[in-house]
Design goal:
The structure is a homodimer. Chain A is an alpha/beta fold. Chain A has helices at about 5-20, 35-50, 75-85, 95-100, 115-120, 125-140, 150-165, 195-200, 200-215, 220-235, 290-295, and strands at about 1-5, 25-30, 50-55, 90, 105-110, 145-150, 170-175, 240-250, 265-275, 280-285. Chain A folds into 2 domains: about 1-175, HUPs (Rossmann fold); about 185-290, Pantoate-beta-alanine ligase, C-terminal domain (Pantoate--beta-alanine Ligase, Chain: A,domain 2, 2-Layer Sandwich), CATH 3.30.1300. In chain A, strands 1-4-3-2-6-7 form a 6-stranded parallel beta sheet, sandwiched between helices. A 3-stranded antiparallel beta sheet of chain A has the order 8-9-10. Chains A, B: Pfam families: Pantoate_ligase.
Chain lengths: ~300, ~300
């Protein structure tokens, strides 16, 4: 495994691996403080690609002024151990000045998809994500790029960008990885107190219960599902709901409150963002109501 | 010369030429209705590149709602003759539905540089330019891309985009090509009546006179140069000035009104946009005042 810290080294290393004719190049962009979710991305990349590049960069331009950019957890030594163990060939760890040698004036802005969910709560967040991901794509020129579906909106936004701008890369979404008790893995879980950690289980539990209730026909409409999600989450006194939404996926378009979910064409996402103290957690479940209906 | 009309054909053709090992690939993006200015871009591309790709596409998203998108002149047969004569290897002529198969939601937005000059007069114009150029870059993956300096702000904006987003292409700016009497070549010149055509000479004349006046020390400050430009242009009764500006190049930052130009570091642009009837013409002159000062 090769660790590179400059764009020039990265280009050289990626070019060399491509020249070695080892098959497609895969990119796994991360903000570090790696966990099993990231490991699953590396493993998936290893299945498809001959060369796996991982980037580790806490990207300042995707954080709002009152967000946790400074506090975001970092542990380079441990990250490099995990990357090596999970088969990364090249790890790119740039300094902020390497990624942004001067004030960046060019942004990639995806409209519509970014107005809801995390886009509404975190203005400018997705512009920062699309811009840094486009930069990484241009540096590495990967054939495939791997992203976790915990950030489902991010996956939808990046796919839109790639399609709209004819980028030469295929976005590969990978399933959410969870703790044994259901909590979705996140680098931000480290912020949680023991009590918050326990109560945070309401996220995954509310999603499972809402999904079962739809499957069993106990709830039918968007409004009913949303109310069920909110009532389960509210059973945790520490939970402060940012959003609990039911939208089409990957278009992220809202459904009428009285719309019967089983009539939806294609996939539906139930998406949550909930604060526990100063920690904001997200989780989601994507499913196809038609399949549920066919089973009933 | 190969004429292609779909993105897939274009990718195949460019890939084939690259595989043939003929050296760098050059792209000349145009809106067609080609003239000697475009021909000079093709010739410059032929000097540097083994394969020259020209695109001809009147890009709807860079026109404002009250601009001349519909009326913009088109003549495919003549364009193809010129492209062949000037050595293009591949000409890409897509339909609008090929470039925008669905509503485009992703835009590349360059700030600061786009707030002045044509950016102020044509809101959204440069977002449309950067977005379509990025799409073409992703389709062709050129090593070099050639743009005329008549659109000097466009060159500055595209360079900013390429640098900020780490795009793998070098922007090559090419000198303005003029008629014998000084009028800068433009596809829009065809809109001009005989009388407008004659009076439009004030653009290049005002730039030449202002440049001489600075060289000879007859005018010194930004305000004086701007006044000189405006007074020469106003000698034409049909001229309606949109802007006449003196800025740094390529940063496009304004200079104080009482700033003595000979003290400027680097290059200065005198940039004009003037309407004649319904036709808006632009022209500019880029020079280095220090060089002028050294001659005095």
């Amino acid at each position: 495994m090769r660790v590179v810290r400059t764009v020039e080294q990265l280009r050289e290393a990626a070019l060399f691996m491509r020249g070695a004719g080892q098959g497609p190049v895969g990119l796994v962009p991360t903000m570090g403080y790696l966990h099993d979710g990231h490991a699953s991305l590396l493993r998936r990349a290893g299945e498809i690609c001959g060369t796996v590049v991982m980037s580790i960069f806490v990207n300042p331009i995707q954080f709002g002024p009152n967000e946790d950019y400074e506090a975001y957890p970092r542990d380079e030594r441990r990250d490099l151990e995990l990357a090596e163990r999970e088969g990364a060939d090249i790890v790119f760890i740039p300094a902020v000045e390497e990624m942004y040698p001067r004030e960046i004036r060019s942004k990639i802005v995806v409209s519509s998809l970014t107005t809801r969910l995390c886009g509404a709560s975190r203005p400018g967040h997705f512009d920062g994500v699309t811009t840094v991901v486009a930069k990484l794509f241009n540096m590495v020129q990967p054939d495939y790029a791997f992203f976790g579906l915990k950030d489902a909106q991010q996956v939808a936004v990046l796919r839109q960008m790639v399609d709209d701008l004819n980028m030469n890369v295929k976005i590969v979404p990978c399933p959410i990885v969870r703790e044994a008790d259901g909590l979705a893995l996140s680098s931000r879980n480290v912020y949680l107190s023991a009590e918050e950690r326990q109560q945070a289980l309401v996220l995954s539990r509310s999603l499972r219960e809402a999904h079962s209730a739809v499957e069993e026909g106990r709830v039918a409409t968007t409004d009913e599902v949303r109310e069920l999600l909110k009532s389960v989450i509210s059973s945790s006194p520490l939970a402060d709901i940012d959003y609990a939404e039911i939208l089409t996926f990957p278009q992220l378009e809202p459904l009428e409150g009285n719309f019967p979910l089983v009539e939806a064409e294609g996939e539906i996402i139930m998406a949550l963002a909930v604060r526990f103290g100063r920690t904001r957690l997200i989780d989601n479940l994507i499913f196809t109501p038609k399949e549920v209906a066919a089973l009933v």
